[in-house]
Amino acid sequence: MAGPMAERDTIIVIPARLAATRLPGKPLADIAGRPMIVHVLDRARAAHVGEVVVATDSEAVAACVEKAGGCAVMTRMDHVSGSDRVYEALLATDPHQRCQFVVNIQGDLPTIAAADIRAALAPLDDPAVDIATLAAEIVVAEERSNPNVVKVIGSPISPKRLRALYFTRATAPAGDGPLYHHIGLYAYRRAALERFVKLPPSPLELREKLEQLRAIEAGMRIDVALVDSIPLGIDTPEDLERARKLLSGTG
């Protein structure tokens, strides 16, 4: 990769907590013969943007990652969010601050496309951007009003990029035009991640239950790369069954 995001400057960290509320043990859930965390690890490695590590609080997850030839970092069990776990892993993995760009890929996105991981880094070519993320246009009508589908409201900068103004669970913005489904993958400048994790939770973050609003309220700039598809996030047993069908070729 040309430009500032050379591989030596970038690290992908995949936070993987074993004690998920709705689907306990999900990083180790079998999908088409391999644990879910290994699917995510493989897709992160296929992006070829830099070193990949899994940040976990589970010895079982760490052993699974290492068996698959990956790198695992043990982190504290009491982190409130994935970004806190990512930052702890970054400090442990790269104490000399070689990596200036950090990609946070949730450990429950086994269908994330390698090309979309690369796309998330592109907005950081602009030095004014602190954090970059992804979204795709909503094409299923019921998702427009589904509070579990987070929408990003942004000003178009180019055909495939927005500057984020707000994130919400509501149906927004009003009026005619597309709505965008936010995809929970983030690319940070190292300094932006460090600042973010040291900020207290913000009022709108607490109200919407959306951590990225903390950055918006603090005046940090988030740009959004628009991609064509929404990866399947695994939160429920039904999601897991869909992923098994997709990745075994029967869906």
Overview of this structure, please?
The chain is of the alpha/beta class and 251 residues long. It has helices at residues 36-46, 59-67, 82-93, 114-121, 190-198, 203-208, 212-217, 237-248; strands at residues 10-16, 30-31, 34-35, 51-56, 71-74, 101-105, 131-137, 151-158, 161-168, 180-189, 222-227. It has a single domain, classed as Alpha-Beta Complex (Spore Coat Polysaccharide Biosynthesis Protein SpsA, Chain A). Strand 4 (51-56), helix 2 and strand 5 form a beta-alpha-beta unit. It is built from eight helices and eleven strands. The chain starts with 9 loop residues before the first strand and ends with a helix.
How is the largest sheet built, in terms of strand order?
A: 7-10-8-9-11
Query: What is the N-to-C succession of helices and strands?
Result: EEEHEHEHEHEEEEHHHEH
Instruction: Give me the count of strands.
Output: 11
Number of domains: 1
Mean pLDDT: 93
Low-confidence stretches: 1-5
CATH topology term: Spore Coat Polysaccharide Biosynthesis Protein SpsA, Chain A
Strand content: 25-35%
CATH class: Alpha Beta
Which descriptors would you attach to this protein?
Spore Coat Polysaccharide Biosynthesis Protein SpsA, Chain A; two-stranded antiparallel ribbon; alpha/beta; 11 strands; five-stranded mixed β-barrel; 251 residues
Describe, in short, the structure shown.
The chain has 251 residues and is α/β, with parallel strands linked by helices.
SSE layout and pairing:
Layout: E1 10-16, E2 30-31, E3 34-35, H1 36-46, E4 51-56, H2 59-67, E5 71-74, H3 82-93, E6 101-105, H4 114-121, E7 131-137, E8 151-158, E9 161-168, E10 180-189, H5 190-198, H6 203-208, H7 212-217, E11 222-227, H8 237-248
Parallel strand pairs: 1-4, 1-6, 4-5, 7-11
Antiparallel strand pairs: 2-3, 6-10, 7-10, 8-9, 8-10, 9-11
